[in-house]
Every structure is written in structure tokens, then in C-alpha cells.
Amino acid sequence: MPYTVNPIQIKNTPSFWQLYRPIEKAMIGMTPLIALGNRPLQMTFEDQLKALIFFHLEEHSSAQHLLQVLNEDNFARQFIAPEEGIKKSSFSEAINNRGLEQLTHIYQNLQADAVGRLPEQHNELGELIGIDGSLIDACLSMQWADYRKGAKKAKVHLGFDLNRSIPRKIFLTDGKAAERPFVSLILSPGQTGVLDRGYQSHDLFDQWQEDNKHFVCRIKAGTNKTRIKDNSINPGSNVFYDAIVYWATLESIRATNP
What we know:
It contains ten helices and seven strands. It has 258 residues and is of the alpha/beta class.
């Protein structure tokens, strides 16, 4: 049976359109999502993206709850759900197995646009990029994460633009992936990475400096330091100690001086 949506209903859902309209521009130049088999797509990438936005805005409790709303709510049926509706099996396939390339394209375009609009802070410190990695829970559908029951097998590596308070670059790997190599991928020449002690690596420190990639990194308590020169400290400064040192771990000192 045909149905219509009251214009007032559209006006009462500004949040959805405020989020989706910038994405329409970000999709320009995106590789189209096509069916890999003979069966046409039951849910286009645009349908998939609208459903994800709607899911988070409405705070649905589950995919089943979302599908119920897509079937029963007038606004959702006309503007969110595919024209022919969507079955649970087709929805699960769309969400779990496709669209990563297209989502990456949109993220990169939105991020670049946001960086140009957001005010920059702490200009005197240069471009500061906070870098960290974090384990995330995996599920059975995340085959690339080598899922095992009771184990966290996925990891996100994030570069966060501290000047503008926005993510800069994101990489997803399985849970065993090392975090240190991603500094070179996240940082651009001239930027300064802000790192915790887990990123301490003498060889990588040398490489980053050769690549004109700066860093501020906490060092481990067992690191051996030889003071070469003390630098003066301005009264009232947040810096309580400044020195030029030669430093290395005890193991590396023993290796170079047996």
C-alpha cells in the first residue's frame, strides 16, 4: 500500500540530514559498489550507509530492532530502507562483508574537509599527532581478525590531530600486529608524534629523524642515560628539566661495549 511522509516529519529529523548531506559530497569519485555474483544487490552502499547513521541516531538496541523500524516507521521506510525493503539475511551480508573500500573513501574525504574547517590550536608547537594502538573485541564475522573465543584479536592504530581534536589516520590490523611500525605510516614529514613508552625504539627513533618526523616519547624507567649538557630553564616554565643526553637501554650498551 502506498504511503507518504508528512513534510513536518522531515523537519523533525534534522540530525539525519545534517550528517548525511556532507557524505553525499564525500562520495564523489567513489568506486561504485557492485554485486560480485549474478544476483543484484538487495541493499546498495547508500542504503547501508543511511541505515548505519539511522541506527546510531535512534540508538536501536540491535540489528533486529533496526530492521523492525525500517519496516514499520514511515520516515525510515521512505528515506532509509531500500525501496523493496530488506530482509535480515541480506542486511547481515551487507553490514558484515562489504563496503570497506567505500567507507574508507568517505572517511578520507570527510577528514580532509574537516581539517580545513576546524580552527588550529597551539600553532607555536607545530602539528602534533597523538599516536596509540588499542585492542578491540572481535566477533565471528571478522574473519580477518583470526577470531578465537575469549581472545581480543583485532587492533586499531590511530593518529589523532591534537591541534584540531580530530582523527588523522586510522589503520585496522589483527591483534598481533606490532604498533611501532605504524608511526611511520601515520606521521608526515614535519609533524610531531606524541607517544607513550611502548613506542620506544632506538632504531626507529633514528629513522624518524632521518625522515624529518619529530616525536615526543616517554621512555622506560630502565633506560640508561649519560648526561652531556644541561640546558637552562626559564622560571615559571612547565619544563622542569632540559638536557642533552646520550641514552640507551642497558642491553644495547652491553652489546656495543662487551
